[in-house]
Design goal:
The chain has 115 residues and is mainly alpha-helical. It contains 7 helices and no strands.
Length: 115
């Protein structure tokens, strides 16, 4: 899945710095970003809907890499962390991240050339 590949390449140092520790068998910030972006790409914006999809949809399960599905409150807290890091309102931070990801994807597919 291309989304997974691109998120793996992203530098998420600032995001990881907001976490004291990540427990074993817990979803990582990188995996949360993957499921959020995949959810948004499929017009799922509700944290409860994304939680349900993580339990039922094989694509979400793949992105979670055998970790249990996060609950909706974990998803909401994660979104809050992104807002704090980006220091922008949530929609702006999300649009910036998605735009960057889309440009990288199109470059990879040789559809757009950056000068």
């Amino acid at each position: 899945m291309l989304l997974s590949q691109y998120v793996e390449e992203m530098d998420l140092t600032d995001l990881y710095s907001t976490y004291e520790r990540i427990r074993e068998n817990q979803v990582t910030p990188r995996q949360l970003l993957k499921i959020l972006l995949y959810g948004y790409m499929n017009r799922e914006y509700s944290s409860r809907a994304i939680e349900t999809r993580c339990k039922r949809d094989i694509n979400f399960m793949y992105l979670l890499e055998d970790n249990p599905a996060p609950d909706h409150s974990t998803i909401v807290r994660y979104n809050t962390n992104i807002c704090i890091i980006k220091k922008h309102p949530f929609p702006s931070a999300l649009i910036h991240s998605l735009s960057f990801l889309l440009i990288k994807l199109l470059c990879f597919l040789s559809k757009v050339h950056i000068l």
